[in-house]
C-alpha cells in the first residue's frame, strides 16, 4: 500500500501538451504551453529535463509559446549511444525546430543546454530570433574538458553511480535537494528530483570535451544574445566579459548572489533580465 504521507512528484499544468518528434535519428520528447505567441525553446542542463523549467515557464507563458525539450538521454527522449557525434545535441535542437515547423524561435539554454544553444546559433545563424545562455562555460575547459582520458572502468563506475541515483526514492532526493540548494524555491526541487530518476546511465558516453569552446562560437552568432552568468569577481569577471564581447550583438549580466543555476538561485533578478532583453527583440 502506498504511504500517502510521503511526498510524490507534481504533475505539469493540465493545459500543457507533450509530444514527440523523430529527428536526428532519435525520438525527442517535449512539453509545450501553446498559443499564438512568439516561440521560446528551452534546453536544460546535464541530468535535468524539460520539466525542470516549469517554475520559470509559468512566469512567461502568458506572453510566449514555450517548448521545454528533453535532451537525448534525459526525461522521455531516447538515450544516447557511444556512436553519437559531438554535435548530436546541437543537431537535436535543429531537428526539433525543423519538425515542429518553428519560425524564428528564441532559444535559451542552461549549462549543457547553453553549449548546445550556442553551437546551434553559430551553425544556423539565421534561425533564432534571439539567444539566452544561462551560465555557459566561457573559459577554456581545464585539461581539455571532461571525458578526455576516461577509461572503461571509469565509465562503468560512473554508469553505476547514475543507476544508483535512478533508484533512489523521491522523498530521499527531495530532502537532499532542499538541503543543498537553500536559495531555490521549494517547487524547484520537486521538479528536479524526477529528472534525476529518469536520466540515462549512457550519458557518460558523451564526449563534451570534443565540443568547440563556447567562446569560439560567439563571433558566428548574429542573433541578439544575453548571457546570464553566475556571480563572479576580479579576474574571472573580467575574463567572462572579454569573452562575451566577441558576440556581435551580445551582453553579459553577472547576477549578484547567483551560482550555476542562475534562474533558481535568483529567480526574480533572472526573470527581470530576461524580460527586459526579450522586450527589445
Helix and strand layout, with pairings?
Blueprint: E1 17-23, E2 26-32, E3 39-43, H1 54-60, E4 65-69, H2 88-100, E5 106-110, H3 112-123, E6 130-134, H4 152-166, H5 170-180, H6 186-198, H7 214-217, E7 225-230, H8 234-244, E8 250-255, H9 262-265, H10 267-280
Parallel strand pairs: 3-4, 3-5, 5-6, 6-7, 7-8
Antiparallel strand pairs: 1-2, 2-4
Q: Which ranges are low-confidence, i.e. pLDDT below 50, for 5 or more consecutive residues? A: none
SSE pattern: EEEHEHEHEHHHHEHEHH
Question: What is the count of helical runs?
Answer: 10
Termini separation: 53 Å
Strand order of the largest sheet: 1-2-4-3-5-6-7-8
Number of beta-strand segments: 8
Overall helicity: 25-40%
Q: What is the CATH architecture assignment of the domain at 17-140 and 211-280?
A: 3-Layer(aba) Sandwich
* Form type: globular
Mean pLDDT: 93
β-strand percent reads 15-25%
As for the CATH topology of the domain at 17-140 and 211-280, it is Rossmann fold
Task: Write down the Rg.
Answer: 18 Å
Largest sheet: 8 strands, mixed
Class from secondary-structure proportions: alpha/beta
CATH H-level homologous superfamily name of the domain at 17-140 and 211-280: Alpha/Beta hydrolase fold, catalytic domain
The top-level CATH class of the domain at 17-140 and 211-280 is Alpha Beta
Amino acid at each position: 500500500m502506498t504511504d500517502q504521507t510521503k511526498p510524490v512528484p507534481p504533475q505539469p499544468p493540465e493545459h500543457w501538451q507533450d509530444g514527440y518528434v523523430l529527428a536526428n535519428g532519435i525520438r525527442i520528447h517535449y512539453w509545450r504551453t501553446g498559443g499564438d505567441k512568439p516561440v521560446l525553446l528551452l534546453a536544460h542542463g546535464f541530468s535535468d529535463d524539460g520539466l525542470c523549467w516549469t517554475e520559470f515557464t509559468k512566469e512567461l507563458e502568458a506572453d510566449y509559446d514555450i517548448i521545454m525539450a528533453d535532451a537525448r538521454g534525459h526525461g522521455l527522449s531516447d538515450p544516447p549511444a557511444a556512436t553519437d557525434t559531438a554535435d548530436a545535441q546541437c543537431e537535436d535542437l535543429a531537428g526539433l525546430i525543423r519538425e515542429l515547423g518553428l519560425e524564428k524561435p528564441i532559444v535559451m539554454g542552461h549549462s549543457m543546454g547553453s553549449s548546445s544553444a550556442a553551437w546551434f546559433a553559430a551553425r544556423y545563424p539565421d534561425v533564432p530570433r534571439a539567444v539566452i545562455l544561462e551560465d555557459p562555460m566561457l573559459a577554456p575547459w581545464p585539461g581539455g574538458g571532461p571525458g578526455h582520458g576516461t577509461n572503461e572502468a571509469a565509465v562503468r563506475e560512473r554508469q553505476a553511480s547514475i543507476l544508483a541515483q535512478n533508484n533512489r526514492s523521491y522523498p530521499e532526493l527531495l530532502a537532499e535537494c532542499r538541503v543543498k540548494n537553500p536559495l531555490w524555491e521549494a517547487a524547484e526541487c520537486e521538479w528536479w528530483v524526477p529528472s534525476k530518476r529518469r536520466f540515462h546511465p549512457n550519458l557518460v558516453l558523451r564526449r563534451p570535451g570534443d565540443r568547440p569552446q563556447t567562446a569560439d562560437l560567439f563571433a558566428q552568432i548574429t542573433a541578439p544574445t544575453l548571457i546570464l552568468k553566475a556571480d563572479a569577481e576580479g579576474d574571472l569577471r573580467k575574463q567572462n566579459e572579454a569573452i562575451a564581447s566577441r558576440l556581435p550583438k551580445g551582453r553579459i549580466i553577472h547576477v549578484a548572489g547567483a551560482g550555476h543555476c542562475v534562474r533558481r538561485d535568483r529567480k526574480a533578478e533572472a526573470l527581470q533580465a530576461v524580460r527586459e532583453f526579450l522586450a527589445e527583440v
